[in-house]
Write a structure and sequence with these properties.
By secondary structure, the protein is mainly beta. Helix content is 13%, strand content 41%. It is built from seven helices and 27 strands.
Length: 477
């Protein structure tokens, strides 16, 4: 085996620098069970949802005076895992989710479970302003900004899909993000590199050298690098998609009119502040919302209003803040005016490419991922045809393991990335296939490092959209 150097850091005082005493915990990491890191997509298929990265390791706590008593490793602090074959590669950086104490004799350890920074989006409710004719990355940017996700922790490719309208109205940020990636189209990818959220558009794998040119050939025997057990080949028939339907909508923009009103009389004490959530009655988005104006949008019965302001002028909702004057105020007929954007038509687009043979052989297998409806009919049709053309017969997947048996293998363990194109050769089965890496798992124990790559058959001809790309020109399979 070729020696590998690990570095495990825990930001114990939560100042994000890993430079303080005791924050390099490498020496206390037990080689059994060792270190585990998993990231990339949830499964081998490119149609799989993105996965929040995970890592685990166990700290020795058997000293006469325990190094890590309860409270030493608070939940939520950052932890970084790096490995080196001469130069360090960051395999994981995320937040500690649990520090499980095992004080019993024979154990005396702390089990650390950490999760990637994308997890901060899970369960976080966000609302945004309305975007019009916006690319997928512009929508992702607005989502991440609204969720408070640091700009320094994201790398976003330029989206190739345009959404006619996009907004969020108190929606789960993670689910909304996944839907945007789906809407960008098959081959769009979302994953973490260290603690950086990385978005690749639907054309990235065709246009980028590391994805359109094989970066390494892994064989069972012969020329290095070699793969080892486990080796799992799956013909992909369990992942057939032979029916793809996407609902689309068209919308009309109404003239400025009342979109929200508050019927009861409103009384405020001196300098009192009250807030209201403004929405249309049918949950349609709006734009051009106007701050309420006295005598037009409310009648002042007594006192004075210091201010009546909206926090945004468009979206699915806005917060209206009313502040009374020094003597208080009573008003009636409070309302907000804006341009409502209502659904004019609702249409389901289905693939035009024939999948009769696939349906006969496999039954109906429907595309199930969520897609935003505010896209063009031409794009929706190209989307549906592309999906079934590629997956109506299934796409094979392969899982290979690579160990640190020599320097060549170790370099591959540490250097390969999600979306890399590699070639897998296995003589006994006759496999010789170009694949894309979609999932990566690292495990280190007793000096033995194994990286498992979950891969799917790479498409063998350009499948770009827009000028030889989707939805304006023909594409090849």
């Amino acid at each position: 085996m070729t020696a590998i150097t690990w570095e495990v850091l825990a930001d114990l005082n939560n100042d994000a620098d890993y430079l303080d005493a005791g924050e390099t915990v490498t020496g206390d990491v037990r080689t059994i069970p060792g270190i585990s890191v998993s990231r990339g997509l949830d499964m081998q298929q490119v149609l799989s949802p993105p996965k929040v990265s995970q890592a685990s390791y166990t700290l020795d706590n058997s000293q006469a005076t325990p190094t890590y008593p309860i409270g030493t490793i608070p939940k939520g602090i950052l932890s970084r895992i790096r490995a080196s074959d001469g130069a360090f590669s960051t395999l994981f950086e995320g937040r500690v989710e649990a520090a499980v104490q095992h004080p019993e004799t024979g154990q005396q350890s702390v089990g650390i479970e950490a999760i990637g920074v994308m997890n901060r989006l899970v369960g976080k409710t966000v609302s945004t302003a309305l975007l019009e004719n916006a690319t997928a990355d512009a929508c992702i940017t607005a989502l991440l900004d609204a969720a408070g996700f640091p700009a320094a922790d994201r790398t976003l490719g330029v989206g190739q899909t345009t959404l006619n309208y996009w907004w969020l109205d108190e929606e789960d940020a993670w689910r909304a993000l996944v839907t945007l990636v789906n809407t960008e189209g098959p081959n769009a990818t979302l994953y973490e590199v260290g603690k950086v959220l990385t978005f690749e558009n639907r054309n990235y794998r065709w246009e980028t050298t590391r994805s359109n040119t094989s970066q390494a050939t892994f064989r069972g025997t012969g020329t290095e690098p070699l793969h080892s057990a486990p080796f799992i080949y799956d013909d992909g028939l369990r992942n057939v998609v032979n029916v793809c339907k996407v609902e689309i909508v068209t919308r009309t923009i109404a003239a400025v009119a009342v979109i929200w009103s508050f019927a009861p009389a409103l009384s405020l004490a001196a300098s009192e502040v009250k807030t209201f959530i403004v929405r249309t009655s049918n949950a349609d988005p709006f734009k051009g919302a106007l701050d309420p104006v006295a005598a037009t949008d409310y009648t002042l019965v007594s006192g004075a209003i210091a201010s009546a302001t909206l926090n945004r002028t468009s979206g699915g909702n806005a917060t209206l803040t009313i502040t009374a004057g020094a003597a208080g105020a009573t008003l009636t007929g409070l309302q907000v005016r804006a341009e409502a954007i209502t659904v004019a038509t609702r249409t389901t687009i289905q693939n035009s490419v024939s999948t009769t043979a696939s349906q006969t052989a496999n039954g109906l297998k429907t595309y199930t991922l969520s897609v935003r409806p505010d896209i063009s009919a031409a794009y929706a049709l190209a989307f549906c045809d592309y999906v079934v053309s590629l997956w109506q017969s299934g796409r094979p997947t392969v899982t290979i393991a690579v160990n640190n048996g020599n320097a060549t293998r170790l370099a591959q363990c540490l250097d390969r990335e999600v979306s890399d194109r590699i070639t897998v050769v296995e003589a006994r089965s006759g496999l010789n296939q170009a694949v894309w890496i979609n999932a990566i798992n690292h495990r280190f124990s007793r000096g033995y490092h194994v990286t498992t790559f979950g891969c799917e058959q790479a498409q063998t001809s350009p499948g770009l959209w827009d000028s030889g790309l989707w939805d304006s020109d023909s594409w090849a399979l």
